[in-house]
């Protein structure tokens, strides 16, 4: 009789397998280093896709098996597609990951001066523990679009020669009344998340200029980057942890880095689709935005973009036979992996987990049948038949996998993009990696799991259900 037993994937690996894992994770760390924002991830993904023969969808009047095409949505979504042997109308294999991560966004009118220091106001994006972002080096990334339409890209704080930015925390000698009596969520309040951007006053001929440090900073920004204070209102600027991804532990079995939720799934699904030949069914790698704030907006999965690009694919194959019902039929016959991370069993806080149903680092891909909170609210609950078919695929390819839930019942919870895929009738389940320190500036993932994700996504693309 078959029993359920998950095993640590590092056991009994051969030297060549360990070498393959290390090589793959070196490339993954590089991706994390250069892709700290959605726009940067899209740019790098397109660069790699074009090197593998992918071309923009507008270059195709019609599509045939083996064609490799991509879509870009407002520089924050990218869709990579390999057309399959079967008609697209018979269904698609979607792997959907998000490329946004918790961070600090710069407010539209951010710079002010206080106590002769120039500060910049922020608004946190996504679920963070605010105190984790103080007294650490931060880098400024993003774009400024001037009134004339000129786009200026910024990345300050990653090069060793660059300055960095930081939020000044309060010293323990003086925090007894101001901070220690606050609860953890308010050790630092939202309006206290302000970075220091300057300290040197500048002499001006005009005596009416009072905030000499602020004006010094604005002068330097204009001289070096050619934009003004008014241009902040049409900017997308964000603060992220400065520095590179690192190996963690004496054995170097863990990757530590910002943004692994969910770029661990984005990178592995990207690599998987770049490495497949003509699949039986059309394969789609869809990298989305705005998951961390509810998948809203025109670049989140609540938009109609999935419907838009799927319709474009069908139109180029069905031609005059295209209609809305053909699109709905295609979506209803499709399968998806909502590739997002799960909470790995934390050895310091095991009490919040149901250990029997918790995922562990080093045990491979995590299949999460449902997420949500308190009674599965706001979750997608995958059908048993679909879960069984995925078990067969992964077992046939000797891919390590495990099950996982996001904590004990009523302990908390969370959601993914799965429910938005399921709205179209797409068979969907969450499938990603176990992560420690999720949503922190330095998240942890097993190198073994990273490589198994890639193998699992590649098998999913190739094997028809």
Automatic annotation (TrEMBL):
<keyword id="KW-0862">Zinc</keyword>
<keyword id="KW-0031">Aminopeptidase</keyword>
<dbReference type="GO" id="GO:0008270">
    <property type="term" value="F:zinc ion binding"/>
</dbReference>
<comment type="similarity">
    <text>Belongs to the peptidase M18 family.</text>
</comment>
<keyword id="KW-0479">Metal-binding</keyword>
<protein>
    <recommendedName>
        <fullName>M18 family aminopeptidase</fullName>
        <ecNumber>3.4.11.-</ecNumber>
    </recommendedName>
</protein>
<dbReference type="InterPro" id="IPR001948">
    <property type="entry name" value="Peptidase_M18"/>
</dbReference>
<dbReference type="GO" id="GO:0006508">
    <property type="term" value="P:proteolysis"/>
</dbReference>
<keyword id="KW-0482">Metalloprotease</keyword>
<dbReference type="GO" id="GO:0008237">
    <property type="term" value="F:metallopeptidase activity"/>
</dbReference>
<keyword id="KW-0645">Protease</keyword>
<dbReference type="GO" id="GO:0004177">
    <property type="term" value="F:aminopeptidase activity"/>
</dbReference>
<dbReference type="GO" id="GO:0005737">
    <property type="term" value="C:cytoplasm"/>
</dbReference>
<dbReference type="InterPro" id="IPR023358">
    <property type="entry name" value="Peptidase_M18_dom2"/>
</dbReference>
<dbReference type="Pfam" id="PF02127">
    <property type="entry name" value="Peptidase_M18"/>
</dbReference>
<keyword id="KW-0378">Hydrolase</keyword>
């Amino acid at each position: 009789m078959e029993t359920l037993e998950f095993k640590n994937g590092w056991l009994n690996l051969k030297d060549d397998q360990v070498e393959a894992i290390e090589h793959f994770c070196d490339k993954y760390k590089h991706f994390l280093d250069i892709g700290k924002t959605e726009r940067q991830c899209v740019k790098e993904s397109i660069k790699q896709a074009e090197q593998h023969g992918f071309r923009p969808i507008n270059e195709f009047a019609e599509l045939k098996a083996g064609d490799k095409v991509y879509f870009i949505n407002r520089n924050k979504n990218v869709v990579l597609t390999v057309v399959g042997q079967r008609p697209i109308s018979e269904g698609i294999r979607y792997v959907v990951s998000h490329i946004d991560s918790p961070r600090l966004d710069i407010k539209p009118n951010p710079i002010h001066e206080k106590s002769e220091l120039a500060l910049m106001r922020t608004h946190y994006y996504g679920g963070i523990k605010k105190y984790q972002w103080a007294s650490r080096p931060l880098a400024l990334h993003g774009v400024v679009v001037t009134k004339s339409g000129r786009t200026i890209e910024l990345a300050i704080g990653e090069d060793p020669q660059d300055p960095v930015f930081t939020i000044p925390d309060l010293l323990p000698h003086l925090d007894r009344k101001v901070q220690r009596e606050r609860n953890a969520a308010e050790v630092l309040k939202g309006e206290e998340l302000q970075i220091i951007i300057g300290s040197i006053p500048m002499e001006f001929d005009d005596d009416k200029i009072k905030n000499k440090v602020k004006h010094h900073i604005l002068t330097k920004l204009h001289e070096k980057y050619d934009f003004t204070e008014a241009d902040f209102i049409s900017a997308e600027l964000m603060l992220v942890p400065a520095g590179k991804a690192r190996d963690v532990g004496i054995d170097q079995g863990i990757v530590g880095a910002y943004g692994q939720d969910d770029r661990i799934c984005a990178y592995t699904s990207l690599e998987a689709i770049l490495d497949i030949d003509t699949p039986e069914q059309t394969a789609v790698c869809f990298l989305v935005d705005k998951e961390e704030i509810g998948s809203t907006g025109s670049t989140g999965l609540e938009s109609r973009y999935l419907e838009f690009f799927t319709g474009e694919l069908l139109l180029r194959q069905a031609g005059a036979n295209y209609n809305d019902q053909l699109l709905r039929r295609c979506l209803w016959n499709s399968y998806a992996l909502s590739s997002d991370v799960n909470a790995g069993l934390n050895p310091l806080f095991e009490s919040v987990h149901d250990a029997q149903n918790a995922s562990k680092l080093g045990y491979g891909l995590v299949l999460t049948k449902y997420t949500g909170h308190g009674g599965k609210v706001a979750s997608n609950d995958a059908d048993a038949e679909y879960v069984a078919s995925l078990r067969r695929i992964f077992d046939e390819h000797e891919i390590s996998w495990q099950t996982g839930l996001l904590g004990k019942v009523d302990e908390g919870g969370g959601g993914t993009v799965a429910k938005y895929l399921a709205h179209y009738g797409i068979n969907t389940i969450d499938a990603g990696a176990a992560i420690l320190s999720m949503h922190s500036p330095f998240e942890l993932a097993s190198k073994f799991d990273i490589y198994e994700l890639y193998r699992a996504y590649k098998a999913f693309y190739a094997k028809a259900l």
